[in-house]
Amino acid sequence: MASLDNFVRLPNGVRMPIFGLAACPFCSLPGTSHGGGYDQESVIYALRECNYRLIDTARRYGCEHLIGKAIKESGIPRESVFLATKMWPTDYGTESAIQAAKSSLTRLDTDHLDLYMMHWPLCPSSVDDVRSTLDNAWRGMERLLDEGTCRSIGVSNFSIQDLIGLMENCSVVPHVNQCEFHPYQNPKELRAFCRENKIEFQGYCPLANGMILKEPPVVKVAQSAGRSPAQVLIRWSIQNGVVTIPKSIKKERIQENCQVFDFELSPQEMAELDNIPKTFRAVDPAELQGKIDDNKPDGYKLPSHLQYVPM
């Protein structure tokens, strides 16, 4: 049976773990506090005790500086951790994208990124030429790849049309497209497009922010498999070949979430979860433009004592 060391190989040969931790203070499970979406000790625990080797974060989350500290405090060598982060749309542009990456390197206290992504296919409302701005940002990322600052580059939340637009002018096809992925949000056409164009599909929110855990087909499969609903959903995602990054700040959940490599779902069970008709989105794209245009600081949901203060 597979182990937690499972990985996928990106088009440029870089090995990426198929399972990891989303380190994000946003999109907390129902019932958690507004500022309760990040816990430093839990990240260290995931690395040190549970063998998580992929950590995904973003500039906007405001916790890059904490991730850098967590890796060091865990005692896990930096070269053993696949570290991914994202630039925010206000950084889009060739030189500004390069500078944004360098700033992330400083906060993460590292000399390279294993994966760097554009966070959304959107720009601030003040931008007149969105297509050109996205292309320029990608050009900056290609330069970061060429110079070795980033081992791989990708995008997040891009649709088929977004990818086609970017690919018309790029020199390097995105290595990764990270999107929301769970049975309520299962973009089969987008996944097929990524597969055909050798773009690795990565899924966040595999538990749909907890909204899907009591869905009858999920409960039924979990009972049949003798596993928790969360483990079944994560296993379903991984068996679909999707790089999967659940989020949790509870140590017991972090441990539970990684125990998904010693069982398999049957084709019938996979099909039951594949075809749940209900839809739900943990992230509402309609709200994104306003969030890009607002002036809230990065990590605004973090408690004040955890927020980044430049030296």
From TrEMBL:
Active-site residues per Swiss-Prot or TrEMBL entry: Y61 (proton donor)
Signal peptide span: none
Domain NADP-dependent oxidoreductase intervals: 42-276
Superkingdom of origin organism: Eukaryota
GO-annotated molecular function: oxidoreductase activity
Site (Lowers pKa of active site Tyr): K86
Binding site for substrate: H119
Record keywords, A-Z: Oxidoreductase
Stretches that traverse the bilayer: none
Family listed: Belongs to the aldo/keto reductase family.
Name of the featured protein: NADP-dependent oxidoreductase domain-containing protein
